[in-house]
Amino acid sequence: MFFSHLSFRQELGDDSREKKEIKEEARKSQHQVEQSEKRMIKLQSDGTELVTNIQVAADSRESRRQTEVEEAHRLRVEKLENEAKSSLEKFEEITRKWTVAKMKEIPQDLRDSLSSQQQLCALLIEDKNKLIHELQKEMKLSDDRYVKDLKKQAEDVDLMIERMEDQVKFLMGSYRDELDQIENSFEHERKILLTGNRKKWEQYTKERRDKELENVTQRMKRVEEYEVLLQQLRTEDTEEYNMIKIKLDTDVQILEQQLQQMKATYQLNQEKLEYNFQVLKKRDEENTITKSQQKRKITRLQDVVNNLKIKCANQEKQSREENQNLTDDYTRIMQQYKHMQKKMRHFAAIDAKKFEEVWLMNEEEVKALVEKALDTDRLVHEQQLGLAWQRPSLAFMERCGPLQPHRQTQKTAHQAISELLQLGQTSGLGKGKYQEAGVGPGAESPGLAVEVYDSGAGLESGSSEVEREREGSEGEHSGTVSVKIVKKLLELLCDEAGFLIESKLLKLLSPLEKDEQSLMKLDSIFTAMGIESEEDVYKLADFFMKYRHTQGEQTQDVSAKWGVASPQAERGEFTSSCSPPSDLIHPNDVLVALRAFTAQHCRPRELAASHQHSMLGLGGRDDTEDAAYWEAMGDVIPEAKLKIWGALEAALDKYHIVLTERSKFITDTQSLKQQNTELRMLLHQYVNSRVNAELEIPPNLVMQLAPEGTN
Amino acid sequence: FANSNISPGAGMYPPVAKLNLAADPRKMRRIIAEDPEWSLTVVPLLSNLCLQHIVRNFEEKPILEELLPRHKDYVLERLSPSLPLQVTANLISDDGYWKRCCKQRWGLCDVSSYGHSWKRMFFERHLENIIELYIPDATDPKTVLGMVPLCRNYVKRLDISQLMPPIKEPQKSEDDDNSDSASDMGMDGPSMDHFDFGILLDKLNHLEEFHVVYRVKGCGMNFEWNLFEFTFRDCESLAKALKSCKTLKVLRIHQSKVDDEKCRQLVNNLLDHPSLRELNLSHNLIGDRGARAIGKLLNRSKLERLTVYDNNIRGPGAQAIAYALAKNSSLLSLNLRLNRLGDEGGQAIAQALLKNRTLKWLHLGGNEMTEPTATVLSQVLVQNNTLRSINLSCNRLGMDGGKVLEEGMCHNSSMVECDIRLTEVGQESDYCISQVVRNNQNQAHRKHNTEENLAQTSEHY
After folding, report:
1. CA of B338, closest CA in chain A: separation in Å?
2. By three-state DSSP, how is residue B421 classified?
3. By the CB < 8 Å criterion, does B442 face chain A?
4. If contacts are CB pairs under 8 Å, which of residues 327-356 in chain B contact chain A?
5. Roughly what angle, to the nearest 10 degrees, separates helices A2-103 and A107-379?
6. N or C: which end of chain B has fewer CB within 10 A?
7. Where would I find the H helices in A510-615?
8. Does residue A252 register a pLDDT over 60?
């Protein structure tokens, strides 16, 4: 640990040193680069200087030339000016001399002067020429100089190019050298670095090798130590092992014995268990079989259930459809039925009418026949028999139309009530009026009309029966229930059972008289309760009376028991005590009684209603008397008379036969007479004819002979 | 047609020759690796045929932009360089084609001076050729104007190295005397003395550089003065043309005998030019009045470089320029080499430099300056730290002047170049000055390096 730390530190130190070295070396190379850069810049600037030197020289030459040219120009100008001055002077002198020459008159002088003038002019011209020559010379010189300059410039340019090329070459060479140097320096650096690194590397590897060797020796040592220790441990362990082995061997023996025992018990248990196992297996098998059977059954049943469900559904569907169909049928049939009823009624009416017509017709006919028969009878009696004839009493002859059976229909409850009320009032109002009034409300409510009609029809059928009953019952009623009591009862009902009346009806009734109001009310109550006939009314009254008897006792008991009775009860008691017959039912009990009554009464009535309903529409006329009627008509001539007539007929027949024979004989005689006449005529003819004359033998001769012969 | 397309060599032979397969080495080979066009397919692709057709009929129906890039390259590779420019100028932008055009026309070409654009090179040189061969009144101006819509978008520089004068009338011998002086503005003479740039410059809306020389190249023994004449008419038209060219940045008129009057006219038209950056009027005859005009121009434009070497500017002209320079804040470089400033002008310029804070490069070589100028300049060296380079070569500064300069130089830290060759300064001061300059150079270099390093590191992070 400590060593490694130290080495680490060493490494660190080495590292930092290395870095320093690298820096130094890097600086070296950089230095080299900088140096070469500087050198190159210097070289470059030197080179450019060398090259530009030519230009500068040319410049200086040029400037010098310019100054020279300027100077020459100035000199030339001066010279020219001087020359111009002198030439002007000379020219002036010449012109002056011209005036002098003009003055001269001697040709000699003139010639002299002219020649001198000429000389002067020549001199002037010579001067000028000289000047021109000089100038031309100068020009030539400058031309030469120009050419020289050109040459020089060309040389300069060549030189410059040469120098530039040299420079370029030189620069390239020096660049290459510098580059080589820089590279060398870098290479050197690299080498140094490499060697340093290699040294370090070797050092480290050596260290590592040493360390490894050390480790190996240490390890060897330790191995030996451990081996000794191991040997020791082994011997100890073997001894211990032997001891434990002996101990364990004995243990093993004991355990083996136990094991044997255990094995035995185990064997036993095993067999037992095996047996149990077998049994259980068997059972299990059975169970599985039954289970499978059950399962199968379940599945089957499930199937059945499903099927049934489906069937049920189908059935339901079917039935629903059927139901639908049936309802449709029903409605249709109902309609048909109604239609039929209507038709039937129509036909009944028509039939009745027809019947009446037929009846009338027949009756008329029969009557005519009767009349005729009677007439004939009278004639027979008077003329043939010469007996006085008397007309038999013929009551039926007076009447006409179909025989109206006087039906004594049961009085309706309404009528009964009205009667009763009338009785109560003892007013002089006619029964017919009440009937009208009774019919009124019936017509007003068309819904009821049918019912009334139906019931009416039903009642009609059993009219005779009812009649009889009524006769009986009236007697009874009169016996049991007095009319007054009934009337009171009815009033009570009217008060107590007001709830059964329709509110609408009440409104309608408000303007009517009290009696009429109560009548209407009762009527509607009865229709609501289903009481239709007088009989029912009386039954009701009777029931009430009976009820009162039974109930009255109870109430009395109750009141007695309680001591203090309710005011109503008191009143009821009071009323019952006040009323002379004290038969009336207590108003509180009316509803209860009514309910009981309806419960009792309605069933038989329903039965009767159904019975009546089945008879509905078979509206039959009572034709029992018709036969008698017609019989009576037919018996207008009694049996005795018929006998007489028979005898008379027989006699007359005989008489007739005789007469017919007589008439026959008469006719025979008559025909014979006619034959005789005819024959006579013929004979006469024959005799008298001309032909006879022609004949050999005239017939008349023959005739004469014949009759002689025949005769 | 089909034969020629099966293989380039096969079409050359008559059908009979095909029997002799061994004669054509190509027939004997399976693969011809050296021919990039060679393909194994015997029947050329329909697309190739179509493209060849397009190439053949390009002049009548130029189809290029609609093609796929691959096909476009194919067509461009095969287009003939001799197609009329009316077809190709605005249609083809591919440099390969224009390179072929240039190579075919001029052989050796250096495209680097044309912004590495072959098309620009072609059109610039083409236009230059047309203008250089333009003869007034003889050539139809339409030959130039016709080129304008074609090359307008590509020409950035015009370097006119010669301008033809009009053809001489028969009365040549009479005019010989007058030809020396400026042209006599002959009423019945030619309508112009040289090509009129007025019709051209305002139409070239990308022109940035304009170099012109009013002379004839290679006249040899046919030399006549009037071949080298820059007349007033020329000056007038050129000045107007320059004024109309709003994109111009560099103007160079040299070796054209520009004297004071012409210079003034040019400068008058260049005043307040929106883009002019560089003016070069070297090798002319500009005197003090012209220099005064230039001085006026300095502060009424954005000139950055002014070169008027080899002229005739003297003290007063230099004073005018110096006056402008003192107030100027845009000029970076001033070259007054080979003038005659003298001490008067040199001192004036130096005085101006005491105030100026923008000029970096100054050339006063060959100006007959002496010690007094050097004393003022030494002051400048002390005070001014924007001046980077000064050239005083070919001036007789003398030993004393050198010493003064040396003194001034000792206090300077911005001068990177100082040329004092042929100024008769002592070797000692020369050495000292060069030492200082070197130090300054090193410093500048180091500064530059550190700046670069900083920039690099900042870029890095």
Report:
1. 6
2. coil
3. yes
4. 337-338, 340
5. 130
6. C
7. 514-529, 534-562, 567-578, 587-614
8. yes
- Measure the CA–CA gap between A408 and A459, rounded to whole angstroms: 11
CA dist list (Å): A323 to A103, A187, A315, B288, B319:
186, 120, 11, 139, 137
Q: From residue A682, how far is each of A616, A690, B42 by CA, in Å?
A: 90, 14, 162
> At A571, is the pLDDT very low, low, confident or very high (cuts 50, 70, 90)?
very low
Quick one: pLDDT band at residue A446, thresholds 50, 70, 90? very low
**Cross-chain residue pair B394–A38, CB shorter than 8 Å:** no
Chain segment A501-525, per-residue pLDDT in tens:
777 777 777 777 777 777 777 777 7
The C-alpha atoms of residue B108 and residue B129 are separated, in whole angstroms, by 16
SS3 A63: helix
Mean per-residue pLDDT, A76-89: 89
Residue A488 CB neighbours (<10 A):
18
**Residue of chain A minimizing CA distance to B312:** A66
Q: Are A520 and A512 in contact (CB under 8 A)?
A: yes
Three-point CA angle B167, B133, B238, nearest 5°: 85
- Rounded to two decimals, the ipTM of the complex is 0.75
Q: Residue A640 gets which letter from DSSP?
A: H
Distance CA A127, CA A133 (A): 10
Contact A63 B442 (CB under 8 A): no
pLDDT at A8: 45
Cβ contacts of residue B442 below 8 Å, gap of 6+?
A: A38
Q: What is the mean pLDDT of residues B147-168?
A: 87
Inter-residue contact B345 to B315 (CB < 8 Å): yes
3-state secondary structure of A593: helix
pLDDT for residue A605 is more than 60: no
Instruction: Report helix, strand or coil for A393.
Output: coil
- Among B330, B391, B323, B327, smallest CA distance to B359 is for B330
Best residue in A39, A42, A56 for a mutation probing chain B (most B CBs within 10 Å):
A56
Helical (H) or strand (E) element with B333: strand B333-335
Whether A56 sits inside 8 A of B338 (CB atoms) is no
* Segment A176-212, tens digit of pLDDT: 999 999 899 889 989 999 999 999 999 999 999 999 9
Interface test with B, best of A35, A52, A53, A59 (most B CBs within 10 A): A59
Nearest to A419 by CA among A534, A517, A531, A540: A534
User: Between the CA of residue B216 and those of A382, B255, B256, B258, what are the distances in Å?
Assistant: 197, 11, 11, 16
Select, from the ranges A603-617, A636-650, B353-367, the one with the highest average predicted confidence (pLDDT): B353-367
Lowest pLDDT segment from A83-87, B108-112, B175-179: B175-179
* pTM tops 0.90: no
d(CA A598, CA A602): 5
Vertex A20 angle, CA A14 and A25, to 5°: 125
Q: Would you call A549 an interface residue with chain B, using a CB distance cutoff of 8 Å? A: no
Q: Mean per-residue pLDDT for B52-68?
A: 87
The backbone torsions φ and ψ at residue A67, rounded to the nearest 5 degrees and listed phi first, read: -60, -45
- Please choose, from the candidates A459, A536, A453, A455, the residue with its C-alpha nearest in 3D space to the C-alpha of residue A493: A536
CA angle B273, B279, B284 (to 5 degrees): 125
User: What digits encode the pLDDT tens for the residues B409-427?
Assistant: 888 888 888 888 888 888 8
DSSP class of residue A533? B
What 3-state DSSP class applies to B362?
Answer: strand
- Touching check for A57 and chain B: CB below 8 Å? yes
Answer whether B139's CB lies under 8 Å from B196's CB: no
Token digits of residue B4: 């020629």
